[in-house]
Amino acid sequence: MQFTSGIVEQAVEALSSFPGIGKRTALRLVMYLLKRPEMEVAHLADSILQLKTELQLCEICYNVSDAVLCNVCKNPNRTEEVICVVEDFSDLMAIEATAQFKGKYHVLGGLLSPMDGVGPDDLTIGKLIERLDNSNTKEVLMALSANVEGDTTMFYLAKKLQSRPLIITCIARGISVGGEIEYADEITLGRSIAQRTEYVV
Amino acid sequence: MQFTSGIVEQAVEALSSFPGIGKRTALRLVMYLLKRPEMEVAHLADSILQLKTELQLCEICYNVSDAVLCNVCKNPNRTEEVICVVEDFSDLMAIEATAQFKGKYHVLGGLLSPMDGVGPDDLTIGKLIERLDNSNTKEVLMALSANVEGDTTMFYLAKKLQSRPLIITCIARGISVGGEIEYADEITLGRSIAQRTEYVV
Description:
The structure is a homodimer.
Chain A: H1 6-15, H2 23-35, H3 38-53, E1 56-57, E2 64-65, H4 71-74, E3 82-86, H5 89-98, E4 104-107, H6 125-133, E5 139-142, H7 148-161, E6 167-170, H8 186-194
Parallel strand pairs in A: 3-4, 3-5, 5-6
Antiparallel strand pairs in A: 1-2
């Protein structure tokens, strides 16, 4: 690209550092910004900056939070009897959107991945164990992705927690609601048969 | 989406105002930013802000510019004998990338579009005529998009300039280099036949 302005070039470079945004898309975004009122652009810049300057991690569950404690941990209607372990806050948001879970969360901040050099100390696993020592938690529900890293992390967690008087569960794997059996992959279909549930009329 | 943090929600809202970026993509971008060092995020926010606070329009050609005059107008090797009229600075950048044009530019800032209420006074057409009055320009090359608005603008410009001792040209329309005749649309193919050029061996 042949830039005639250093300021435009710098903005394109910065925006194209986003995953999935190339230089052409970044230039389109810059052109869009140039046409917006200054106040709106300032608001965008400020919102981005606040992510690093004002956002913090909840002291209890390591969810992103505007204050020392996150909205879930602050909520007196949520019980710590069940703690749902998730990889990241976007998974937490997805579960919150289902309105099916009334317990609290623990955000690991990643998954174990020896290949990428991510070990137990890089995650909040130690903090989870410390937390379990001081709470009345009865169940730990692991809601982690169904991939190698997720499986590794679940195995590690289950081993770590097995000596405690806890029920350790993981979310059900199976055919998606609305999914057709014909098109399901073998592993999912196999698991949905092995872990079949009683059909209650 | 169920946000547990107002700061994250605000950033997602702001980023999803970009064209082509929905809330899910915006959330992915926010998650990416959260993992980057503060300095990098501050640089991004600053680059965005500078687009409105420091960028200006070149006094001569209305290209975006870091200073009073843009890099093309400042360049003593560029001649004003040919002025290339473009819709926006991204078109200027595309033409600069070809390295085929050695003249100067005039950025209209849009195209005539009565349907959208864009008239001649909303563009820099008056400034172009003023500029032509005070220069030794011999040719005006119109490099505008091949759509209704582009055609309307070219017709209007040509009418406005026809009384002057100027050659008025427009970029060639035809089959793209590498394009296959079989798949070309009828209008393009028709035009490429009507405007055929002599084949020089």
